[in-house]
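User: Before I run my own analysis I want an independent prediction to cross-check against. Here's the chain; please return only the structure tokens and, at the end, one sentence I can use as a sanity check.
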Amino acid sequence: MPLSPYLQFDGTCEEALLFYADVFGDPAPELMTFDQVPDGPPDWQSKRILHGQVSVAGGLLLASDTAPGDPADPQAGVSISAALPDDNATRTAFERLAEGGEIVMPYGQTFFSPGFGMVKDRFGTAWMLSIDTPPVT
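Assistant: Structure tokens:
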């Protein structure tokens, strides 16, 4: 079973997953809210996301909001790496993720990829985007 990153948000999970689905051209995410938990605690009667998932670059990105009342420190110390099929797809995703976010390393050619860049999006998720290239042998 492949690894699937699991991101935590503080009330913006649905917005973030809808945005990621749009950026990467994938179907709308699957979402389950805290108020759908059978016999959940009364303070969980919330539309915050208990679990969500969206396809990104051939993988699965899982996410949730923190439980109501729990503090959050979204994505501290973690980056999501996505290899996209070509320069146009990679550059477009990079530019979209940078909207309202922060460019950490501008998109461009590197010694290991014809296109690579690092950005932290407006939800606090750090991304490392590159062009999917065959491994050097």
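Sanity check: The beta strands are 6-9, 30-33, 49-56, 59-65, 79-84, 102-108, 116-120, 126-131.
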